[in-house]
Structures are given as structure tokens and as C-alpha cells.
Write a structure and sequence with these properties.
Strand order of the largest sheet: 3-2-1-4-5-7-6
Shape: globular
Number of helices: 9
CATH topology: Rossmann fold
CATH class: Alpha Beta
Number of domains: 1
Oligomer: single chain
CATH architecture: 3-Layer(aba) Sandwich
Structural class: alpha/beta
CATH superfamily: Vaccinia Virus protein VP39
Distance between the termini: 33 Å
Order of helices and strands: HHEHEHEEHEHHEHHE
Length: about 240
């Protein structure tokens, strides 16, 4: 996880992601949502070239790779401590030590860019959005997730989240403005991870991901219940390209 402050998310964060059920559930849920969303929006046929921003030790990258046909998976992470904690990576995957606002990647080299719980950590997320637009091929897709700010604050006050803390508050309107500044087209916004379900791992109760996704779909039909979603999904597309599937 790349942040604006060195050492905010470091080895301690990586250790916690290996043993805390709530953190394991969260990164696996984000990876599942990202993979399912990418399948709906990608125009090119598989396999895909994927760039994951703020990859930490690569666990979410590996999880998403198992759910989506890919050709190359590149994870970008600034913390060398976290990169050193990475498990054995698949042959088509790897982590690069770099800043997400200055990607060491060629223009138009990716079909999909994922940014799972990273944009809120950046003081200038528009720079990362512009870099995303640069490396995406025409028609390529960005899938981003971030917590809903009010629930993020509630979780921190209840000591469910470590006081990291976030630099930006993102929502649908802010994401739309960032897309406009980066010359990307917003194509989808929705909420996911219903709070009552997301709280179960804190109680060490197992939550099957497929069950959690089904429950999200049920709850989304009821506007008042939507207020209890704690995460948001935002999708953008680089103009150009055509459906060749």
C-alpha cells in the first residue's frame, strides 16, 4: 500500500494482513469485486495486462489474478519493507518499487489498472489518475475502491481501524472531477461490503466471499439499507477502443 507518508503502512501492516481475519476478508473482497467488475467492462479479449497500484505485499494482486485471465500482472508499491514480505509470485506477476504518481511503465501498456484502497491515501490523487490514463490502452479500464469517509471515521473511532490516516475524502462527485482532469470517462459507481457482514470477521466468524457478494446484491435493492455499505467502487474508462470480443 503506497501512501503519501513513508512508513505509515509498513511491515506491521503486512504482518497484520497475514493474521487478522478482518484484513484478510477486506483485501479478498476488494479483489473479488475488482475482478468481477473488470470482466463486465473490459472490451478486449482475455488475457489482460494488469497494473495494480499500492500493492503492499501483493496478496490482493495474487487473489485478483486467480479470478481474472491475465497475461502480465505488475504491482506498484513504494514500501520496500512490504515488497520484501511478498510471498512467491506467479510467473506472470511481480512487484515494482515505485511511486504511483510516477509509474515506470510504457504508454498504453495496460488493459486494466486497479487501485484498491489507495487513492484515499494520496495528497494529490489526480496525479495518479493521469498516470493511469497514460498507461491504459484506449478503451482500457480503471477499477478503484475506497472506503466511504463517514464509515472510515466511525471505524477509526471504534478502534476497528488503525489511525493511519487518509489524505483525501473520495466519493462519486470527487471521482468524477478526477476523471475529468485525467481525461477518463466514469462508467460505474456503486457501494459494496455491507457493514453488518463486514463486521463478522472482527468476531472471528468466517464469511464466504460469494455469500457476502450475494448479500450485497440483496441489500442494494433497499435504499435505506444502502447507508450501511462501507466501501465504494468507482470505474473509469480511457476513451477510444472498441469491443472486439
Amino acid at each position: 500500500m503506497n501512501t503519501s507518508n513513508d512508513g505509515v503502512l509498513d511491515r506491521r501492516y503486512g504482518v497484520e494482513r497475514l493474521k487478522k481475519p478482518e484484513l484478510i476478508f477486506r483485501y479478498k473482497m476488494r479483489a473479488l469485486v475488482a475482478a468481477q467488475t473488470a470482466r463486465r467492462h473490459l472490451l478486449r479479449p482475455a488475457p489482460y495486462d494488469v497494473v495494480d497500484l499500492g500493492s503492499a505485499e501483493g496478496l490482493a494482486l495474487i487473489e485478483a489474478r486467480s479470478l481474472l485471465p491475465t497475461n502480465v500482472n505488475v504491482g506498484i508499491e513504494r514500501s520496500r519493507e512490504l515488497i520484501e514480505m511478498a510471498p512467491a509470485m506467479p510467473a506472470d506477476s511481480g512487484l515494482l518499487a515505485a511511486d504511483v504518481s510516477r509509474l515506470p511503465l510504457a504508454d498504453e501498456s495496460a488493459d486494466l489498472v486497479t487501485a484498491l484502497a489507495i487513492l484515499e491515501h494520496l495528497t494529490a490523487p489526480v496525479e495518479t489518475m493521469r498516470e493511469t490514463a497514460r498507461v491504459l490502452r484506449p478503451g482500457g479500464v480503471m477499477v478503484a475502491t475506497c472506503p466511504i469517509p463517514i464509515w472510515d471515521e466511525v471505524s477509526t473511532r471504534l478502534h476497528l481501524l488503525r489511525d493511519e490516516q487518509h489524505e483525501s475524502h473520495l466519493g462519486k462527485k470527487v471521482f468524477g472531477r478526477l476523471c475529468a482532469q485525467a481525461n477518463l470517462d466514469p462508467v460505474e459507481y456503486r457501494r459494496f461490503m455491507w457493514a453488518p457482514v463486514g463486521f463478522l470477521p472482527y468476531l472471528h466468524l468466517p464469511v464466504p466471499l460469494t455469500w457476502a457478494r450475494v448479500w450485497d446484491g440483496v441489500v442494494q435493492r433497499f435504499p435505506l439499507a444502502n447507508l450501511l455499505f462501507v466501501n465504494q467502487l468507482m470505474v473509469a474508462r480511457k476513451p477510444g477502443g472498441q469491443n472486439v470480443q
